[in-house]
Specification:
Elements: E1 4-9, E2 12-17, H1 28-42, E3 49-54, E4 58-60, H2 65-68, H3 73-91, E5 96-101, E6 104-106, H4 108-115, E7 118-122, E8 126-128, H5 142-150, H6 152-161, E9 164-166, H7 167-173, E10 178-180, H8 185-197, H9 201-215, H10 219-232, H11 237-247
Helix pairs in contact: 1-3, 3-4, 4-5, 5-6, 9-10
The structure holds octanoyl-coenzyme A (CO8).
């Protein structure tokens, strides 16, 4: 891969976006690489969780404005479709994704982070959806994901103002779950990743599916989804192991 560095550390995959000359801005090739990287990780049955972060002073500073400046409507549609498809693939992956926002997460960069299951930010990070300052709107799912995550009032402020927000503001808005010092960001991400990795694999995947599918359902439909998934887990060796480990006062061997 040209723009993504991948490594696996203690059973956790780490993807680092690395396009320093453009603060990791997303062009079509980089978007495709993100999709390919997720597909590749999914093939590794030993993995349950991965971290997505950026190299240098940006997580991702947005879609590549130099490339977009030349687009006509048809090309813009294709680009938006590519970004949305890749981010949905990431969002719907069986793997849990943790976005570690190390620096600028702007426009398409924040939209990428929003497609992760949850996010931590460095205290130095700056986040926002500045598209309106370019005469555009978010085109990689940001309008939909942000309002579902933090509510329509806050999301409207983020989208219409086009302002950059500090990591602390992102924390209080609910965009990120935690803010840590820059040098602690990876450690904190790894800690929670290891915690997730120690849990039942089918349980994690099932919980993710129910949470995600529930978002597109009514609460009543979501309850039914949960009930069915909950019951189905009683047929898995994993749940037998989990419950008998508890009763046997030992750690489960998942
Ligand atoms: N695209 C292309 N190049 C970029 C981008 C970008 N988004 N961001 C930064 N760069 C480049 C700069 O042009 C510069 O290149 P060069 O050195 O060749 O001049 C290099 O990266 C370093 O950037 P700066 O010198 O500007 O660094 P600063 O530290 O001074 O500023 C900022 C950092 C504040 C992040 C600044 O670079 C900036 O404002 N960047 C643009 C942020 C932005 O507006 N992002 C949103 C883009 S729009 C978008 O994401 C839409 C998504 C949906 C698309 C739907 C498709 C139809």
């Amino acid at each position: 891969m040209k723009f993504i560095k991948k490594e696996i550390v203690d059973g956790i995959a780490i993807l680092r976006i690395n396009r320093p000359e453009a603060l990791n801005a997303l062009n079509a090739d980089l978007l495709k690489e993100i999709g390919e990287a997720v597909v590749e990780l999914e093939k590794d049955s030993s993995l349950k969780v991965f971290i997505l972060t950026g190299e240098g002073k940006a997580f991702v500073a947005g879609a590549d404005i130099a490339a977009m400046a030349e687009y006509n409507e048809a090309q813009a549609l294709e680009f938006s479709n590519l970004g949305q498809t890749v981010f949905s693939k990431l969002e719907n992956s069986r793997l849990i994704s943790i976005g570690l926002i190390n620096g600028f997460a702007l426009g398409g960069g924040l939209e990428l982070a929003l497609a992760c299951d949850f996010r931590y930010a460095s205290s130095k990070a700056k986040l926002g959806l500045p598209e309106v300052s370019l005469g555009l709107i978010p085109g990689f799912g940001g309008t939909q994901r942000l309002s579902r995550l933090i509510g329509i009032g806050l999301a409207s402020e983020w989208v219409y103002s086009g302002e950059m927000f500090s990591a602390e503001q992102a924390l209080s808005s609910g965009v990120v779950n935690r803010v840590v010092e820059p040098e602690e960001l990876l450690n904190e991400g790894m800690k929670v990743a290891q915690s997730i990795r120690s849990r039942g694999s089918i349980a994690i995947q099932s919980a993710k599916k129910v949470i995600r599918d529930g978002l597109n359902s009514t609460v009543d439909e979501g309850m039914v989804l949960e009930q069915k998934k909950f019951a189905s887990l009683f047929g898995t060796p994993e749940s037998k192991e989990g419950m008998s480990a508890f009763l046997g006062k030992r750690k489960p061997n998942f």
